[in-house]
Amino acid sequence: MKKVLIIGASSCLGSNLATYLRRHYLVYGTYAHNRPRIENVPCFQMHLDDETPILGVLKTLKPDTVLYCAGVTDTQLCERDSDLAFALNATYPGTIASALSRFGGRFVYLSSAKVFSGSKGNYVENDFPDPQDIYGSSKRRGEEILKRYENVFILRLPTIFALGSLNQRSMLNRLLRQLWRREQISCISDETRTFVSAHDLCHAIGLLVDADPIHEGIYHLGASHSDTYYGFATRMARIFDIPTKLINPVSGADFHSQSHHHHDLSLGLGELRKQFGFEPEKPDQALKRLQVGLKKGVFVPSS
Fold first, then answer.
1. CATH code where residue 41 lies
2. Which residue of 64, 189, 202, 298 pairs with 293 in a disulfide if CB–CB is 3.0 to 4.6 A?
């Protein structure tokens, strides 16, 4: 049975991946502060600013695949501390990939649509990256470093939606909590994104874990549909029987500077479909499935 090590298993995406992948592999995880409680997934505490512990874990476990779900995703923090962003989003993943290469392990790096400027949209894998902020630049640098190694799979992510556990934050947790309280919320209506569920992310990762090494390279977790945050939020509200009048459209320029105004970061469904036949759920299907899971108590939005 393959061993999979998830760096950052306490994150919303990391815990979703661990819960999904444990059905098929021996899954291990790392965390910095909040120990994830995932049955049958042993987790090790370590901080990303110290390479020694993770190198020791790699030497002991010798995982078949390492999934990198850690790093700095807060774009404002990246702007304030670019050294930290480049260290955790680029240098540190390169160190892990280098160590893995010594015994043939696979490295799967979660990158971002923000390696692009958002000037054209419907990006495909061979489009030239042109990031506009520190976060996107650090992810692009990570990709460049990782291309030096074999058996590396880079998955550029769109906007992922999921419901997390009590100690996790996610876009859906936050939106549902506010809307259930009948609070007014504002959502950007002039920026286009691709929205894909964590369930589809897990499916795609499973394909990459099992893929033949000849398929290494860059992939987009894209879709044939895109929307704005406002459009997605109103879609979600209708499915969850919440009044859409609580949701107000605003411009992205009201939230960030014009230089960081990514107009269209939608990702096309390219190589994942071509190489593996991957097809994500439509947003309505995914949201309805989450609603059913919520009613059954499978998902618990944070309070």
1. 3.40.50.720
2. 298
